[in-house]
Every structure is written in structure tokens, then in C-alpha cells.
Write a structure and sequence with these properties.
The chain is 45% helix and 15% strand. With 562 residues, it is α/β, with parallel strands linked by helices.
């Protein structure tokens, strides 16, 4: 073993130097006794301390500490042998002390040399296409740079580090320099010809992440991120953990946790019917419900193309031959009743609706026919077939409504609550705001405008809206169905509202990094609020056990019968 060999060499050299390089003054037997003691102590100490068990990276801090402890122990043993001998014929004590220092330095030098060779030889030699700035010089930043330099599958080449900690400036991590902080994102990109930035700050708050992403997108950089600390299982980050930033990352959202057992209790083994199954929420509901193993999942929609797309996403076929696909317009009372009698659902999720505010202001009768009369048809069919649980999916527009959409959806909430009073089953409503990226929402509209190089149209510079991802909405709808006692409106926690102009700017930079967005303000349209609400002024709050849901009583005396 190299550490042991070093003892023989350095002890002889130290003794030779102490004796004025007169080799004849060194007694071979004495030298061998002291050297043997040091080597034996090195081997035993190395095993006891764990130095030779190979559990630490070469030349890591942990290995250096163990090496120092082992070498010092060996030097003490060699010195003890000299003291116990009590004769000057052995190696001088000063030579033992010097040899201990030389052995330690030599062993460290060998290890660092091996580490350098390994790092150089292990670095990927293929040409990388994307010069990358890494923001964050902490543990995650160090780990990801090390991983990037060695992974031949990535096209990301780390060229510079940024960190807001001034003490880290001028550091180099695996040859990559720390050159500034967040204020230097744009200038660093220009200096190093970078086209990508990797945000290696898993502990960052959502606000911090938004600020970094905004600055990076404005500088024309493609933004990639690492998972949050809570999502890092083994405390290490690797190339496979890197992903592109998404619009949902800009939402100040906490992770949704649901009681899957309570949800499965009313889904698994049951006949489930979803109206509006081809829509954004309806299709996502169907895909999630299918994983909970219902005995049957009946998907009802008036759009055959939407049903085919849904079936294709579920089974990869899209043949439209399944009896679980029901082509039906909820405006047709007889067709709805026939569908319910044929399938006899036990749980219904009612997602079918007309939802475009401006269009319904022009055609209010269409909104009424679908949202009110169509929903009434579904409610009556559910009642006639003794549905156990009915979940009406409402909207934040129903809170203090001023639009046709809001007024019609509020009436559906009231009708749902009234149906609960006259049935043994549970009838409830779930209310939430805009779903990010859903059909007809602002995000697809903005993307289309950006791709066409057309102005981005925003109604008002101060207008705000609530957003959540479709995954969040579906999980919380399912959870609400498990918690409600019937007749209530459960409101999903939408977090903080988002300024639409900020969303437009972020989206523009997201689609075309570095290009200045052209935003045109068109003014609020009829039926639109400057700021949406999710809870009505006259809603009465009730206890609710889930932190992301609030429960509110519905006074059915306000219902308008027709």
C-alpha cells in the first residue's frame, strides 16, 4: 500500500537529513524497527478509522481528515518506539516528527493527483451546443456542475457561476468561476456567449424563483431548473433532474396533498359519469379517475372529436366503439335521461358548461340553455337514477356575479344545493378560478398571438386573475367530493392572484426569450371584473378539514325556479 511505502521512504530521508546525510550513521536494524512500527500503525489505524474502506471520494474533506488522523497516530507510535528504546542508536525523534509531516503531505499529494487525473479523464470530451450559466454556488450548484462535466448525454456546458452571496465571488468550482450575482445575468450571458441558465437553488422561494426566471428570460436565456429540496430524495442532484421551466412554475402554489384513501373510497369499484368529458377539466378528471379503478367510467360530451381525443389518451386507440363513450348534448333532456338510465352512474362529475364570458354576454340565451337548463337536466337525471354523489364544477365568476357566465353558474350552485335537500344522495358544488392552459384561457390565446407576432391583448394593466394548474384542480375536486356533506360549495384555495400583464410579459419571454413583448390594452369588456373573487360576500363559512379547501353554506331561498 502506497501510504505504508511512503513511511519507509520519508523516515529514511528525514533521518538522513538529521544526520547530515551520513548514511553510515543510520543503523539499518534500528531504522527498520521504527519504520515497521509506523507502517503497522498506519495499516491498523487506517482500518480502524475507515480510511481504507473506500467509503469516501478521493481527496474529499472526509478522506483528508481520516488520513491526517491515521498519519498522526502512526507518527506517535513510531515516536513511542524511539522513546521506549532509550538509546540513541535508533532514529532521532526529530526525524520521526519530520517524517510524519512528510508522509502526510506525500499521501495528500498522491490523492489529489489521482483525483485530478480522474476528473480530467472522466470529463466528457464531446462538443456541447449550449453554453450555460449556473445560478447558485451552493451544494446543488457544485453537484450539478460536476455531473454536467461528466455526462456525455447533455448539451449543457457550464461556463460561469452566479450567486448573490458576496463571499463566493472569485471562487472556482471544478474550473467554473463565480463572476457575480443576479444583477449580472445579462452581462454574463453576453460575455460568455451563454444561451441557457440553470437555476440551481432548490431552496429558493417562489418569489425568488420568479425574479430569477424573469431576469433570465428578459436576457434572452432559456431557463432550466432543478427540483425543490422536498423533491430531492437522496440529497444529490444529477443531470436527469434538470428540466425546462414551465408556466406553472410561476404560480405561487404549495404542493397539493390529498387523502387518497378517502377519494378512492367513493371512486374505486363505482360507476362514474363525467359530463363535459372532452373539455380541459373533464378530460383530466377522466384520466385521473381511471387510475383509481372505477368499475366503469362513462364519458359524456356533445363533441365527438373531443371524445375521440380523450379515448386516445386513455387507451391509445380512439376507435369510438366503447359503450362508455356517450355522445350527448346536456340540453337534450330526453337524451340525458336515457344516458343515465342506460349507465346508472353512482357518482357524477358535472363539468359540461359554456364558459366564455364575452361570448355569453352577446349570446346570453346560449349560456342559459347550457349552464342552467342543461345542468338542470343532468341534476334531474341524477335524482331519478338515485346517484349517490353529485359534484358540480363551478367557477369563481359565480362569486358576486356580474356576468352571464357568473349568474348562470351561480344558479347551478343554488339548484345543486336544492337538489341535495330533496335527495338521499350528496349534491355539492366545487368553485375555483382559471385553469392554466385550459381551452379558451388566456395562456393559449397569448401563445397564439406571440407565435403570430401579433400584439398581446390585455384588457387592463391592473387586471388580476386566479390561476391553478389542471392537476391541482382535479385533485382538489376529487378531494372535495370526499369531504362535502352535501348542499355546500367548496372553494379551492387559489393562492395569490396574478396580474395578467405580468403573465403576458413572462409568457412572451418564455416563448421568445430576449424579445421585447408588444402589449396592447383593450379595456375591460362587459361582464368582466378588474379583480375576481372566489368567495361571495354572502357566503357563510363552515368548518372544513382540508387546508386547501373552504366550505360554504348555500341559501337556496335565492334560487329562481323556472
Amino acid at each position: 500500500m502506497l501510504d505504508s511505502t511512503l513511511w519507509f521512504v520519508v523516515l529514511y530521508l528525514a533521518a538522513l537529513a538529521r544526520l547530515n546525510f551520513e548514511s553510515s550513521a543510520i543503523t539499518t536494524s534500528s531504522y527498520l524497527v521504527v519504520a515497521a512500527a509506523a507502517v503497522t500503525a498506519q495499516l491498523i489505524g487506517g482500518v480502524m478509522f475507515g480510511l481504507y474502506r473506500g467509503r469516501r471520494p478521493i481527496a474529499s474533506f472526509g478522506e483528508v481528515m481520516l488520513l491526517m488522523a491515521t498519519s498522526l497516530t502512526s507518527g506517535l507510535v513510531a515516536g513511542l518506539v524511539v522513546v521506549l528504546a532509550g538509546t540513541p542508536s535508533l532514529v532521532p525523534m526529530s526525524a520521526v516528527i519530520a517524517a510524519t509531516a512528510y508522509q502526510m503531505l506525500g499521501a495528500l499529494g498522491v490523492r489529489y493527483g489521482r483525483r485530478l487525473i480522474v476528473e480530467i479523464s472522466s470529463r466528457s470530451s464531446h462538443v456541447r451546443d449550449h453554453h450555460t450559466i449556473v445560478f447558485g454556488a451552493g451544494t446543488a450548484g457544485q453537484q450539478i456542475i460536476w455531473s454536467l462535466q461528466r455526462d456525455a448525454s447533455t448539451d449543457l456546458e457550464p461556463v460561469a457561476l452566479l450567486d448573490d452571496d458576496p463571499t463566493k465571488k472569485r471562487l472556482k468550482l471544478y474550473g467554473v468561476p463565480v463572476v457575480g450575482g443576479r444583477a449580472d445575468i445579462a452581462s454574463t450571458a453576453r460575455k460568455y456567449g451563454a444561451d441557457t441558465i440553470l437555476l440551481a437553488v432548490p431552496s429558493a422561494t417562489q418569489t425568488q424563483l420568479n425574479d430569477l426566471a424573469d431576469a433570465s428570460l428578459a436576457a434572452g436565456l432559456t431557463v432550466k431548473i432543478l427540483p425543490r429540496i422536498s423533491n430531492i430524495i437522496d440529497d444529490t442532484v444529477q443531470v436527469r433532474d434538470i428540466r425546462s421551466i414551465e408556466m406553472s412554475d410561476f404560480l405561487n402554489r404549495e404542493e397539493v396533498n390529498i387523502d387518497i384513501d378517502s377519494v378512492a373510497a367513493y371512486i374505486t369499484g363505482k360507476r362514474i359519469l363525467v359530463t363535459g368529458a372532452g373539455g380541459s377539466i373533464g378530460s383530466a378528471l377522466c384520466r385521473t379517475i381511471s387510475t383509481l379503478k372505477p368499475s366503469r367510467l362513462i364519458m359524456l360530451d356533445h363533441d365527438a372529436n373531443a371524445l375521440q381525443a380523450l379515448e386516445l389518451s386513455l387507451d391509445g386507440q380512439g376507435l369510438l366503439t366503447s359503450p362508455d363513450l356517450v355522445l350527448c348534448d346536456i340540453r337534450d333532456e330526453d337524451a340525458v335521461q336515457t344516458a343515465f338510465e342506460a349507465t346508472h352512474p353512482e357518482v357524477v362529475f358535472h363539468a359540461a358548461a359554456q364558459k366564455h364570458v364575452s361570448l355569453l354576454e352577446r349570446y346570453p340565451a346560449e349560456g342559459y340553455k347550457t349552464n342552467v337548463e342543461g345542468s338542470r337536466n343532468v341534476l334531474r337525471a341524477a335524482s331519478a337514477t338515485a346517484v349517490e354523489r353529485f359534484v358540480n364544477i363551478s367557477t369563481d365568476k359565480a362569486a358576486n356575479p356580474i356576468s352571464v357566465l357568473g349568474q348562470t353558474k351561480r344558479e347551478v350552485e343554488l339548484n345543486t344545493a336544492a337538489m341535495n335537500e330533496s335527495n338521499d344522495g350528496i349534491f355539492l358544488s366545487v368553485r375555483f378560478g382559471n385553469v392554466l392552459g385550459s381551452n379558451g384561457s388566456v395562456v393559449p390565446t397569448f401563445v397564439e398571438q406571440i407565435n403570430r407576432d401579433a400584439p398581446i391583448t390585455v384588457t387592463d394593466p391592473e387586471v388580476t386573475r386566479f390561476f391553478m394548474t389542471v392537476e391541482e384542480a382535479v385533485l382538489l375536486v376529487l378531494q372535495a367530493g370526499a369531504l362535502a356533506e352535501g348542499g355546500d360549495v367548496l372553494v379551492l384555495d387559489m393562492g395569490e392572484s396574478v396580474k395578467i400583464v405580468d403573465l403576458a410579459n413572462r409568457l412572451a419571454h418564455y416563448v421568445n426569450p430576449g424579445k421585447r413583448p408588444h402589449i396592447v390594452f383593450t379595456g375591460l369588456r362587459t361582464g368582466e371584473k378588474l379583480h375576481e373573487q372566489v368567495i361571495s360576500d354572502d357566503d357563510t363559512a363552515l368548518p372544513c378539514p382540508h387546508p386547501r379547501l373552504s366550505r360554504h353554506a348555500v341559501d337556496t331561498k335565492d334560487r329562481v325556479d323556472s
